[in-house]
Amino acid sequence: MPTWRALALMFRVPRRGRGFWFSFAIDLIWPLLAVVTRLRFRGGEKLPKSGGVLLASNHLSFADPVTVTAFSLASGRIPRYLAKASLWRIPLVKRVLTGGGHIPVERNTAQARHAYLGAVEAVNKGECVMFFPEAGFSDDENHWPSRKVKNGVARVALETGAPVVPVVNWGTHALLPATAKFPKLFPRKTVDIVAGDPVDLSDLNGTDRETINEATKRIMHAITELLATLRAETPPTR
């Protein structure tokens, strides 16, 4: 979309429920994103306008939470993220995360379950909760989903019955490569974000390991196929 349209969109997205500091961060970063990139959003109508929903995305760059937040807001939903608990120890970041209703994750500890319970609670309250199932950047040389995925989004979906909407980013790896300290602003990068149809999990019941693994596999398949369609390429067979 043209820069002027991306800037105008900022004033039409949801504001109530964002918290002061999360809202301040959005208002600060959105204009920069609109100026330094060409944003192309598609599939926003796939996100339900109300009620609990889960978004599951591929992960290419530290820029992904910024672009997915912009897409989610443009689609009428305020995203809540699961983020590593250490970020809450940074005073200003803590204000942004707490005010935005985000959920701390104590990785590799017994307290990690609290994040799962927090996500379930948020979804049951009608929130939009965002997951990056790979829990890290793709390590595939062609940027296809490649990492061993976490099953959190599948577990929350099976527990709550909330729809899982696949979302794909493409272009953020060129804007802010995983190994770069600063964004690469020139030439101006195009960033595509596309949402697909909710993943069909209707035949799955229970939260046993086999069922969770099947749900996880379907979610990642949906993400990969959506990315393949966006890129007009064939993903590798794994």
UniProtKB/TrEMBL annotation:
Pfam families: Acyltransferase (PF01553). Keywords: Acyltransferase, Membrane, Transferase, Transmembrane, Transmembrane helix. Residues 53-172 form the Phospholipid/glycerol acyltransferase domain. GO terms for cellular component: plasma membrane. One of its GO terms (biological process) is phosphatidic acid biosynthetic process. The keyword Ligase does not apply. The chain crosses the membrane at residues 20-39. It comes from the Bacteria. GO terms for molecular function: 1-acylglycerol-3-phosphate O-acyltransferase activity. This is 1-acyl-sn-glycerol-3-phosphate acyltransferases. It comes from Actinokineospora terrae. The lineage of its organism: Bacteria, Bacillati, Actinomycetota, Actinomycetes, Pseudonocardiales.
